[in-house]
Design a protein that fits this description.
- The chain has a 6-stranded mixed beta sheet with strand order 10-9-8-11-12-13, sandwiched between helices. Strands 1-3-2 form a 3-stranded mixed beta sheet.
- The protein is globular and about 70 Å long.
- The chain is an alpha/beta fold and 415 residues long.
- The protein folds into 2 domains: 3-210, no CATH class; 283-413, von Willebrand factor, type A domain (Rossmann fold), CATH 3.40.50.
- It starts with a helix and ends with a strand.
- The chain is 36% helix and 19% strand.
Length: 415
């Protein structure tokens, strides 16, 4: 079988059944890779790639092929492939399981017409612990969970039913002969998920604001052109909800640091044109003066919060240059003066894990002659007086549940 020709046939079918999947797939690079069991999406340097095992694809019926392609495109639309996964193996695996539960719940609960046009794949023969006729993917009923929940809700249910400490991994061989870490089929989570989700699922996910912005533009065009196809109303609402950003830095910087953010626009490769899409360049706000960002790296700030800080720093860099310092009881590397942009965010290295003092931040800002300051923190330190920040435009970005009092300037909580 000519696999590429078979995929093209399924993609053409999606033009009617699922226009948003068709539009995403049409401009996406496709790569055959036998080292993965099934199919997945990868994000790297602003580009989305569909990776698939040709033997797996050949084994599917046409409506099953439709299902797996729409499934992968839903990962893109829901920003799963630009989600900053946990560095902990058990946690990352559970996140990936929750993502699949959310998507498959959407795609298997549609109308009878949808079920005829696409269906979740099943095993055509016995494979390992799985028997012929069993579904290959993951659905909520396998865990006793309700249908129609979000990724975050399924993750919370998984945490309650199967804590991270109960998730066990074993070393096994991949199809290409390399060794990989896969779920132990003897642990509670492994009994359900083994051979139903690729052990490399999520390996190609990469935090990327360019792709995030591109996807938001795609969703805007889908909504404008009524291109949802046969996707159900609840699923559409969940996709639209996923486009919301925790913090809209464009509005925040414009409203709070107006004198330093220009209203002029300039062409940018960071995003595609909202009206015409690829290959026409979009625009971004012209920066007048960089913003000094101070990230709290004290012991009271958890690793998940530091990951969130990196995401917010990256989003600020979409609008203006960023001078970045980390601090705990003092500012770390105070003499460094590096201007970060979105492309150089990966080189950020946080330092300091001691106590917390805010006073050195504002003393340092004055010493360096910066005028606008963003402080990323949990807020747990001494109160700051108005006199200490006089002459500075200060935005405090507080982690959820952090301390917001005693902070002159604009205070924003990360949701």
């Amino acid at each position: 079988m000519d696999i590429e020709k078979a995929i093209e046939g399924t993609v053409a079918r999606l033009a009617f059944f699922s226009p948003f999947s068709f539009n995403l797939l049409f401009g996406m690079q496709r790569v055959q890779q036998e080292s993965i069991e099934t199919m997945g999406v990868r994000v790297k340097s602003g580009r989305i790639t569909l990776v698939y095992n040709p033997k797996f694809y050949e084994s599917l019926e046409e409506n099953e092929r439709t299902f797996v392609l729409v499934h992968e495109m839903m990962h893109v639309l829901l920003h799963h492939c630009t989600h900053r996964c946990s560095g902990d193996l058990a946690r990352a695996y559970k996140e990936n399981v929750a993502m699949d539960l959310a998507i498959n719940s959407m795609l298997t609960s549609g109308s009878s017409e949808e079920q005829i046009s696409m269906k979740i794949p099943v095993y055509k023969e016995d494979v390992g612990i799985r028997k012929k006729g069993e579904i290959i993917g993951l659905v909520p009923s396998q865990f006793g969970f309700p249908e129609g929940l979000s990724f975050e809700q399924y993750l919370a249910l998984l945490d309650k039913k199967m804590p991270d400490s109960t998730v066990v991994f074993v070393t096994c061989g991949a199809p290409d002969g390399t060794s990989i870490q896969d779920i132990d089929p003897n642990c509670a989570l492994g009994k359900i998920t083994k051979q139903r989700i690729d052990p490399q699922h999520g390996n190609g996910f990469d935090e990327d604001t360019f792709v995030d912005d591109y996807v938001r533009n795609v969703v805007e065009n889908i909504e404008r052109n009524h291109g949802w196809g046969h996707l159900g109303g609840k699923a559409i609402e969940m996709v639209k909800k996923a486009q919301e950003q925790p913090l809209n830095w464009g509005d925040i910087l414009r409203l709070r640091l107006g004198p330093f953010i220009s209203y002029q626009k300039q062409l940018s490769r960071r995003r595609w044109n909202k009206h015409y899409g690829k290959p026409f360049l979009g625009s971004t706000t012209k920066s007048v003066e960089p913003v000094a960002v101070y990230a709290d790296t004290s012991g009271s700030v958890g690793s998940a919060d530091l990951s969130r800080f990196i995401v917010e720093i990256e989003r600020i860099a979409n609008y203006t240059g960023v001078y970045l310092w980390s601090f705990d009881t003092c500012v770390q590397d105070p003499d460094e003066f590096v201007l970060f942009n979105r492309r150089s965010i990966d080189s950020i290295e946080f330092k300091g894990r001691g106590g917390t003092y805010f006073s050195p931040v504002f003393e340092h800002a004055r010493e360096k002659g910066v005028s606008q300051v963003v402080v990323l923190t949990d807020g747990c330190a001494e109160e700051i007086s108005q006199e200490q920040v006089d002459g500075l435009e200060v935005i405090w970005v507080i982690t959820k549940g952090g301390r917001k009092d005693g902070k002159p300037g604009t205070v924003i909580e990360i949701n």
